[in-house]
Structure formats: C-alpha cells, structure tokens
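In this supplementary section we document a worked example of the pipeline. Step one takes a protein sequence of length 389 as its only input; no multiple sequence alignment statistics are reported here. Step two produces a three-dimensional model, which step three serialises into structure tokens for compact storage. The input and output of this example are shown verbatim.
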Amino acid sequence: MPPQVERIIGRLRQGGFEAYAVGGCVRDTLLGRQPGDWDITTSARPEEVKGLFTRTVDTGIQHGTVTILMDHVGYEVTTYRIDGEYEDGRHPKQVAFTSELVEDLKRRDFTINAMAYSHETGIVDAFHGMEDLEKGVIRCVGDPLERFGEDALRILRAIRFSAQLNFTIEGRTYGAITQIAPNMARVSKERIQVELTKLLCSDHPEKICKVYETGISVYISPAFHALPWEGFRVLPGLSAEKYVRWGAFLRLAGPEAAVQVLKDLKLDNDTVNRVRTLAVWAGKEIPAEAAGVRRAMSGMSPLVWDALLDLNGCGEAIRRLTAEIRERGDCLDLKHLAVSGQDLIEAGIKPGKEMGELLQRLLELVLECPQKNERGTLLKEAGIQGIKL
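The serialised model returned by step three reads:
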C-alpha cells in the first residue's frame, strides 16, 4: 500500500476504529496490476473520520464518504454501510451505517471487488473473490438479479471488467445481464460512454460483442445498436488512445453514423472530429507516391495520420514516404504556406470566399510540387504582380 494509505488506516485504527483498503485496489494488487486509486472503508462514522484528520472534504457525506487530503492527493474514506432501496435503478435512496465489514462488502457488485485488506488482518474475502480471480471469473456478490436491479450500470461494468482482465462472466451473472438489459435505458449516456471507452481501450476490446449479444445495445442508442459490430476486430499494434479505438470500432459505419453514435454518447468534440476523419479515410486506398500521400496527410493531424496508417494496414512504401515528407518539412497545410491571407490583402484581394479559394488552390499546388512553396513563386502563380516580393 502507498504510505499515505497506511497512515490513514493506522490513524483510524489508533482512534479505535476498523479500517481497510477495499475494492479495486485490492483486486488489482492481487493481479499484479497498478491500482488507479486506493479506497478505504472504516467502521468510523463520517464525523469521527473528520475528527481524526485536519484536511478533509465532504465529497459524499450523505453516503458516508469523506475525502482525506494527504500529500496533495485525495483518498476516499467511506463508512461501512448498507444500501437502502434503489428507486432509480442507479443510486440508493438512503443508506444505513453499520459496524460490520461483511455487511458493507455484501452490497458490492462483484466478488473480485468485494475484498478488503489491512496489514493487521490480511485479506478479508467473505465471497470467494480470490478464488474467482484465480479462475478468471466475473461473478456477482449474492443474487445477480438483485445486484443488477440495484444499479443497471453494473451489467456494462461486468462486460468491461471481462475485457480488461480477460475473464469470463459466470453463467448466472451472464443470464441476469440479459434480463436486466432494459434497465440500461435509465442510465445516463455519459456513464455508459465511460464504460464503453474503458472496454474499447482494454486489451480485449473485441468483447464489446457481448454488449450486442446480451441485448444491451438497443438500450444505448438506435445508432449504436445499428452498427456493423460483427466486423469489429483489433488490428495488431493499434494504439489504445480513445479516438483510435473508437475509430477502429466505427470504421465500417461510415462518418455520419460514427458521428451520430459518438454524439449520442456525449463524447467530446475533439474525439468526435478525429473519429470522423478516420471514418472518412478508413479502407481508402492511398497511392504510394509522394503527392498523393501529402494530399492525404493534409486532411488530418500527424497523430490521426499515424493512427490511420495502422487502421488501414498501410505498408512500408507509404510509411517510408511519410517519413521522407516529414524529414523534408514539406508544406501540408495553410499554416505553413509561404503566402498568407495578409499577403493577399496587401495585393488587393478582399477577405472572403475568393481569398479562401485562392489559398486552397495554392496549397493544392504546393502539395503537388512542394518546391514551389516560396512567396514569390506563389504570388506569381496567383497572378499577382507589382507588389514587393
């Protein structure tokens, strides 16, 4: 455990309370993975936790969560609790605090996430989470219909964990997913998008097929449900960047459908624009000659171009031309054109459509013949005479 987590647990125990690292951090440590964060559970009530530490934030005080700030990092400390009724299929209407750790673990989603640890006690594993880790199984704690009925997002989390860990989903748990699938309509698109993105950026993004096979997809969005998901495959060496994986998944859909899916899921505009570009160029044959490569490169950022090379499986010839173009510093966009809009204004051309079309024509010329990217040459090509070169 990080020393800060040890100090927090130690101080809670010195105060007469139980305290453990809990959930994903325990799971990931047992798997030899680096935990993303460390959550702590304790028998202390929120006000008792706040009394033991000087820097705290009431991040979820109504649900028993206090964030302790230590060395400029926040650590969530949550009181053992029993969740009340989940009226909206996502959040408990109320919670009741308890003094029993096992009662708190009982409310968690999967056995592999329902383990706690402290140096004093070792691992507390009341639901055979270690056994499921060894077998590579995703299994709900208790009755899967109850767990998924409490929070429908858990059905997508089950598939996401199976992709991240390359685990199988236990039979009863898988069956419950198909039954609870309609409840996904009650989950926010933002939360769905986060889970789908984590799934696609995992080592086994092909497991997104489970979203369709279990009947979840129809409750995500019409555009998502209509995707040609059967053709999805992972290309070797493909970057795990968000826009690259979404681009790979959506490449057969076409740019309009790709954009609709991403907008339905509330993805950021930068990702939408990059994926749109990949969808436009996916599967297109790029001629293995310098001018053709320059024209293609001019339509996107260098990072997106490199992703496209992998997505389309481009060969050595195009990759070699790409390296040569970059090494020479060939002009690929208006920003690096030797003539600017200001030059054209000084030559008497008014800003507007005509100027834009002229600049684009000059860029096309330079993409064909990069040696013409000189101010004087381009002004002459534009038919502009009589200004100081």
